[in-house]
Known about the structure:
The protein is α/β, with parallel strands linked by helices. The protein has helices at 2-5, 20-33, 39-52, 112-122, 125-133, 137-149, and strands spanning 11-15, 57-59, 62-65, 77-87, 97-104. The relative contact order is 0.21.
Amino acid sequence: MLTNIVSPDKILLHQSVSDWQQAITVAAKPLLDSKYIYPEYITAMIDAVKNYGPYIVIAKGVALAHARSEDGVKSMGLSIMTTKDPINFGNPENDPVKIIFCLAAPDPTTHLDVMRSLVNVINENWKIEQLSKIDNIEQFISILNKFEQNA
């Protein structure tokens, strides 16, 4: 499922970011550039973390940036970013974050299959470690697909 909706132009590897706000902004840029989201969706994702805390850090080293569909989603999209240096979001159990998945879902149910696939990929810490070290987009997609298929 993940490899069906994420294309090479939606994957950013080893990005240098200074804080979690910039991490969300950079991770969302491929979705913005491809017109999957409006700029206000990025603001809504950042505001959600400011208002509700770092709930988007869903596993050790992994964040799932998202907001409500009515906050600026045009169509279903997923981008993935790995960071050059891990970023703290303020989640003591799961920081620092090495991989950010940015999800844009046009309605409250469309994203459920993506979430199930994502759980299969992030369910073991060694998978996150391996993905975070890859520096080639084709290899990243191949390993992501392998993790998804073997789940």
